[in-house]
Specification:
The complex is a heterodimer of chains A (about 160) and B (about 600).
Chain A: H1 2-15, E1 25-31, E2 38-41, H2 42-46, E3 50-56, E4 63-70, H3 71-77, E5 84-89, E6 94-98, H4 100-104, E7 108-113, E8 116-117, E9 127-129, H5 141-144, E10 151-156
Parallel strand pairs in A: 1-10
Antiparallel strand pairs in A: 1-2, 3-4, 4-7, 5-6, 5-10, 7-8, 7-9
Chain B: H1 2-43, H2 48-70, H3 76-93, H4 96-104, H5 108-122, H6 129-140, H7 142-221, E1 225-230, E2 235-238, H8 240-246, H9 250-253, H10 258-261, H11 268-278, E3 283-290, E4 299-309, E5 314-323, H12 325-394, H13 400-431, E6 440-443, H14 444-458, E7 463-467, E8 473-476, H15 478-495, E9 501-509, E10 512-519, H16 551-561, E11 565-569, E12 575-581
Parallel strand pairs in B: 7-9
Antiparallel strand pairs in B: 1-2, 1-5, 3-4, 4-5, 6-8, 9-10, 10-12, 11-12
Helix pairs in contact in B: 1-7, 2-3, 2-6, 2-7, 3-5, 12-13, 13-16, 14-15, 15-16
Classes of the chains: A alpha+beta (about 160), B alpha+beta (about 600).
């Protein structure tokens, strides 16, 4: 199964070259992935199956509706194999996230909040969002630091 | 007793108090701990010191990038990136929780000013790279300073908050610990109370068992039969004495309805006793006959029925049964003795009554005798007295004939007096039961003839006609029979009209021998007829003639003594008295 998914991902990668004419690359994926480091433009990422999530966050008031794609879809697409993902932000913030988080929860990488695209001057263009309100165990400071905004890199290890 | 009940109340109240304290302290501790837990969850989410540090780093990186750009080592895109990052930090700080924190540490105004500054930077006019860079650097100068100050304040605020929170936790924990100690104490008290009450209960159980064993022993060794029933009438207890009396073993009796155990208990009186005991009434039955299977004659038992109660209601009835056969026998013997005694007393009383009656009749006799003397004796005495007075007056002038005549009268009067006395005494003797009568067979005809002859001799002018068979055999005392006839004939003659005839008719028939003596006199007035045979009764027609009124009484009494009777026959003219006597056995009329 895993090989099947990886195989499909590799096929799609071959069919759809990263960092084409879709715009500037916003996310670079490195580490244990099939086919070497890959960079993705925002429009390419929007082609991934869309996922929405409504949740509150620790840095805003009230609940918000986030739109993006599932982290595990991206990992499958790039044929990632590893236990941890090191997510890094534009301001060099970096944090290790166990891959199991993406399997256990519908963690998304959001590119829009409440219908408006996330801006780089705010928390965009990409923000790792956990389904915090759906799982009480996620309402924990040890998960809060995994909410990386201005996400710019993923290293699979 | 009071002390003990006070003690037991204390031992009852103590565990209750301990349980209440236990519950209160447990609730208290739980509330504290829940509160601490909630605090921990909420309070752990703030990390403003880190936010400030990141913001300061972003500001300094922007400044650094601008400097590099002035040296030509960084391009516009990099500056734009760093500017966006700083903007994002400012945007973060202006958002909900972060903004409130900044306001709380008193830097809201400064943040607003910096936000304005950053907005102004975005609209900086395009110009030569160096000029623009230097102006940008000047504009950015307050940011790191602000963030450093904010970090400083955030640290102090967070430490203050942390210290306060820890103090609150300590306080809560201390209270919880106190609560737990209280719980432990309450638990210890409860455990102690439990141990003590267990011991008490064991002791009470032991006492109860001993009491039960003792009552069991009492019941078993009782000479009285004891049985108990429940409210449904089923036997629950059957002791040895009962088993011996009824001939049923306890195993046969216990559990069965009492009426099924023995028919004896199905008798109405006993059923009623059980029913009343179950209704709460104690009753007893004396000398109830108890037929055993093998014996003809019943034993007799006394039964007592009592209700059995627990604290609130009647749970059954208990029956005590005692063999009372000996007492029954004694009672019967007593009754017999009593009956005999009563009989004896009645006998004696009757005899005494007889004696008393004789006594009183003697008294009557004397009284009547006195009355009679005053009345009847006066005339003959007067006759005798006057005759003797005349003799005395005449003295020597009286001739022998006159003397004989007057003396004869005096003697006649005295003889009459003697007769009166004789007959009166005779009547009294008869009445006192002193006269007995023989009964021997004899012929009444010669007796009648002799009596009539005597009467004719005594009163020469008397006319008497006799009708008689050849013989009239009777069973009598001849002397008495003669006396009876004499009385009757002299009576008939006395009350017959002068010159008239007195009839004497003797007749024999199946009933016996009858002698009817009648005259044609005035007869007896109807009111006097029933009383004519009473002693000393004198009818209206006897006024003026001497007599004591005992003649007919004596006649009847003597006749009855011989098994016969004297009766006054109903008659239209004249008077007829009849003497009836029995014939001897085997005599044919």
């Amino acid at each position: 199964m895993r090989n099947g998914v990886t195989g499909l991902a590799m096929f799609m990668m071959a069919a759809m070259p990263a960092a084409a004419d879709d715009g500037p690359a916003v996310l670079r994926v490195t580490g244990n992935i099939a086919g070497g480091p890959a960079s993705f433009a925002l429009d390419t990422l929007r082609d991934l199956p869309e996922a929405t999530l409504e949740t509150s966050t620790v840095v805003t008031d009230g609940t918000h509706r986030f739109t993006g794609f599932l982290m595990r879809d991206l990992l499958d697409r790039v044929g990632a194999s590893g236990d941890h993902v090191t997510a890094s932000a534009l301001n060099d913030y970096a944090v290790d996230i166990p891959v199991s988080d993406f399997r256990d929860y519908d963690v998304i990488v959001a590119y829009a909040m409440d219908g408006a695209p996330l801006e780089r001057a705010d928390k965009g263009p990409l923000w790792i969002v956990y389904p915090r309100d759906d799982h009480t165990e996620l309402q924990d400071i040890r998960f809060d630091y995994r909410w990386v905004w201005q996400l710019s890199g993923l290293e699979i290890r | 007793m009071t002390g003990r009940s006070g003690g037991s109340a204390f031992w009852l109240a103590l565990p209750l108090v301990a349980v209440a304290a236990f519950a209160v302290l447990l609730t208290f501790s739980l509330v504290r701990m829940i509160r601490v837990e909630a605090d921990m969850r909420v309070e752990a989410e703030q990390n403003m010191l880190w936010v400030m540090h990141q913001s300061e780093a972003a500001a300094r990186r922007l400044g650094e990038t601008v400097l590099l750009a002035e040296l030509g080592e960084a391009d516009t895109a990099e500056i734009a990136l760093r500017l966006d990052i700083l903007r994002s930090r400012i945007a973060l700080l202006n958002d909900g929780p972060q903004r409130r924190f900044v306001d709380s540490i008193g830097l809201g105004g400064d943040l607003d000013r910096l936000t304005g500054l950053l907005g102004a930077i975005g609209t900086l006019p395009e110009g030569a790279g160096e000029i623009r860079a230097s102006r940008l650097r000047a504009a950015l100068a307050p940011f790191p300073t602000f963030f450093a100050r904010a970090a400083n304040k955030a640290m102090i605020a967070e430490w203050d908050e942390l210290g306060g929170r820890l103090e609150t936790y300590r306080d809560q924990l201390r209270k919880t610990i106190a609560g737990l100690i209280g719980i432990m104490v309450a638990g210890a008290i409860l455990a102690a109370a439990l141990v003590i009450s267990l011991r008490n209960s064991r002791r009470r159980n032991r006492m109860l068992r001993r009491a039960r064993d003792f009552s069991g022993l009492l019941i078993a060794s009782s000479g009285e039969g004891i049985a108990a029933v429940d409210t449904a009438g089923r036997c629950t207890l059957w002791n040895g004495a009962m088993a011996a009396m009824m001939g049923r073993r306890a195993e046969q009796a216990v559990g069965s309805p009492l009426a099924k155990v023995a028919g004896f208990f199905d008798v109405a009186a006993i059923r009623d006793g059980v029913t009343r005991a179950l209704a709460g009434e104690s009753t007893q039955l004396q000398l109830q006959p108890l037929f055993r299977d093998t014996e003809e004659t019943p034993d007799h038992v006394d039964l007592r029925f009592f209700p059995m109660r627990d604290e609130t209601r009647i749970v059954g009835a208990i029956i005590f049964m005692q063999d009372a056969s000996d007492r029954y026998a004694a009672d019967r013997k007593d009754a017999e003795t009593r009956a005999r005694l009563e009989h004896l007393v009645a006998e004696r009383t009757r005899k005494l009554d007889d004696a008393l009656r004789r006594e009183s009749s003697a008294a009557d006799l004397y009284r009547n005798f006195a009355a009679m003397i005053s009345h009847q004796f006066r005339t003959p005495l007067a006759v005798a007295d006057s005759a003797l007075q005349r003799l005395i007056r005449r003295g020597s002038r009286a001739d022998p004939d006159e003397v004989a005549d007057r003396a004869g009268r005096a003697r006649g009067a005295i003889a009459g007096l003697t007769r009166l006395v004789d007959s009166t005494l005779h009547a009294a003797r008869i009445e006192a039961g002193e006269v007995g009568a023989r009964r021997e067979p004899c012929d009444l005809v010669p007796i009648v003839t002799a009596v009539c002859d005597q009467q004719r001799a005594a009163v020469p002018e008397t006319r008497i006609s006799i009708t008689a068979p050849a013989a009239a055999p009777v069973l009598c005392d001849p002397a008495h029979a003669e006396q009876v006839l004499k009385n009757m004939v002299s009576n008939a003659v006395k009350y017959a009209p002068p010159g008239s005839e007195v009839s004497v008719a003797l007749r024999v028939d199946a009933q016996g021998v009858h002698c009817d003596i009648g005259n044609s006199g005035a007869g007896i007035a109807p009111p006097d007829r029933p009383r004519i045979f009473e002693r000393n009764f004198r009818g209206a027609n006897s006024v003026g003639s001497p007599g004591t009124g005992v003649g007919l009484f004596i006649a009847r009494a003597l006749a009855r003594m011989q098994g016969g009777d004297v009766a006054l026959l109903p008659c239209d003219d004249g008077t007829v008295f009849r003497l009836s006597l029995r014939q001897p056995e085997g005599a044919a009329p």
